[in-house]
Amino acid sequence: MIVNVENPILEVHDLTVTYSRKPVLWGVDMTLPKGSLVGVIGPNGAGKSTLIKAIMGLIPLSSGWVELFGSPLDDVRKKVSYVPQKESVDWDFPASVRDVVVMGRYAKVGLFKRPRKADYEAADYAIAQVKMTEFANRQISQLSGGQQQRVFLARALAQNADLYFMDEPFAGVDAATEKAIIGILKQMSAQGKTVIVVHHDLQTVTKYFDWVVQLNTRLVASGPVEEVFTQELLQETYGGKLTILSDVGNLLRKQGFPTRDVT
Amino acid sequence: MDAIYIITTGSLVAIACGLLGCFLILRKMAMVGDAISHAVLPGIVLAFLISGSRDSFTMLLGAGAIGVLTTFLIEFFHKKGGLQSDASIGVTFTWLFALGVILISVYAGEVDLDQDCVLYGEIAYVPLDLWIGSNGIIYGPRSLYISGVVLVVIILFITLGYKELHLTTFDPAFASAIGISTSLWHYLLMSAVSLTTVSSFESVGAILVVALLIAPPATAYLLTANFKKMLWITVALSILTSATGYYLAVYLDGSIAGAMSTMAGLFFALAFIFSPVDGLIAKRRRQLYETSKN
């Protein structure tokens, strides 16, 4: 079931992406409403990260096109922010938290210019929002997984964009960080910003998001969470795997085991 | 006077190499620097044969072009051919270097380059090769001017493109997402590496230039966790390497390029053992401290 909207903030039309002739995404066609907090879910290898990378122009498209704010990406880059998976960079890189967050300002600084005082102030403000102020001068190699993710979020906040793409921001973070991050995302969404998040924990989908995109190479569903987060559509997205998952989930719930690691 | 000429030329070359090397090692591309430094050889010989002189401008262009071609071929074999990146580096540079060796041996009579000089460099000749103006004024060693100009170009490149180089090194995906072309900056950096390697060719040679590209930045990396400080430490180490290397060579009456690289390696070993953060002693101390606490 695919719900389309008028005046979408993001429109993806007939998007196909292939890696060495094998399709990873096939004919994805969808529209997303402004101001929504969107969860992109699907099994491993379903093309969730690929979808975001394709929208951001980081990988070549085999067919289709993408429009953000009704324009091609190049015209609206400054209004769009992308948070890569935190594993995609080398955290041993010699840099402090502040150095990384100020990178969020680079697009606004312009070619051949250095970030100014105002840019550092914006970075410090973003660092405060993710509650990392006391770590601002800490070397990034000394951060925990949760702190690394907060730094990436702060860098995106410093960009002050209107549309955010986040690749697995909840992967490998502690419970406190997860709570802090979702709090910030909800706040952003309340301010009319649109946030699109690759997510893999089905338990929290209804609590976190108001719009859900379900992918498994093809687009299975896209719509308000209450309409499309149904057993039937999830079955279609996850195939046989979900029954095992839901059985295990039920079992755990019955026996009162915690379903997530509390760290 | 000769000592000053040699040490200054050595320092200029080492600083240019070291600054670029900082970016190379953080991009995990140290061996690409190695590849370029070897692969520019046919470029040098061809430029020499075409222009008929060692007038270095043509040489820099010819070799620079081959350097960029090398990077392109490495990427091409890796991405399109599905070859592992280290294998594609190995295939590309040995092949180009071999072409250069053949060219030198075939045109030995016409080319005023000999294989020893190309491989090991001969910085001791720097003071002999003077730049003499048309009116007979002696301006000083030619290599000094060339390496000086190259260093200025490199410093300009790094200062003007600092932001872009830094970001494409740390997080290429984010850089492309905000509209900074990672491949453009990749090729610009590789062109800069080619230019620098060629200019340092005569003084330290194809093999030892790698020591200057990698060893000082690797040492600086162990000594600091701040990128700007890493660049400054590299500059200081490069000058130190050049000066101590020269005097070691004089003392031993041996090869200057060899002595410089040896010193670069020695500084690395010292940093590896004594670095306050990452050094062996500091680590051992921390371990002892932890165990005594428990």
TrEMBL record, chain A:
Q: Name one GO molecular function term.
A: ATP binding
The protein's matches in SUPFAM superfamilies, at most eight in alphabetical order, are given as: P-loop containing nucleoside triphosphate hydrolases
Q: Which branch of life, at top level? A: Bacteria
Instruction: Quote the InterPro entries the UniProt record gives.
Output: AAA+_ATPase, ABC_transporter-like_ATP-bd, ABC_transporter-like_CS, Metal_Ion_Import_ABC, P-loop_NTPase
Which Pfam families does the record associate with it? ABC_tran
| Family label | Belongs to the ABC transporter superfamily.
Q: What is this protein called?
A: Manganese/zinc/iron transport system ATP-binding protein
Q: What is the lineage of its organism?
A: Bacteria, Pseudomonadati, Bacteroidota, Cytophagia, Cytophagales
From TrEMBL, chain B:
Location of this chain's protein in the cell:
Cell membrane
State where it is primarily located.
Answer: membrane
Q: Which UniProt keywords apply?
A: Cell membrane, Membrane, Transmembrane, Transmembrane helix, Transport
The way it spans or sits in the membrane comes to: Multi-pass membrane protein
Q: Which InterPro entries match?
A: ABC_BtuC-like, ABC_TroCD
Key word Membrane present in the record? Answer: yes
TM ranges: 6-26, 33-51, 57-77, 89-109, 144-162, 174-198, 204-223, 230-249, 255-277
Q: Name one Pfam family in it.
A: ABC-3
Q: Which GO terms describe its cellular component?
A: ATP-binding cassette (ABC) transporter complex
* Any single GO BP term: response to zinc ion
Record family assignment: Belongs to the ABC-3 integral membrane protein family.
Know the name of this protein? Manganese/zinc/iron transport system permease protein
